Task: structure prediction
Amino acid sequence: MKGRPIIVHSLKEARAAVAVAAELGVPVTLASAPEAAGYLGALWFRELVAMAAAERPEAEVDAVLDCGDQPGHVMAALRQGLKRVRFTGPKSTATTLRALAGRYDAEIVTGALRAHDLMDQAEPEAACRRWLAR
Result:
């Protein structure tokens, strides 16, 4: 992943993270909430990231969609063009998914994701600034 991950729940939060990253001249990874692929969907997340990144083309933006332990959500995300997805299921399944992700020039992320969550942040830009300036 490029840059420090920030968990975003809305376009407003994604815009804040990308704007601060651009101002600071640092890369940022927009991460979804845990298991978001199941209730928001890959297309929604892909478009959220694209819209936020398009507003600040000078920003270096990466993204990771959390698919929980659901291999079907991983495959849907890959078909939607996401290049990085997080999978928390069995290692053997992750190995298979990695092989399939290679066909999409994508990456499967496993393990803990150390990220700053913008949930309930009254001032998302200030929270992003503190996190990204470290």
About this structure: The radius of gyration is 14 Å. The beta strands are 4-7, 28-31, 61-66, 84-86, 107-109, 116-117. The longest strand covers residues 61-66.
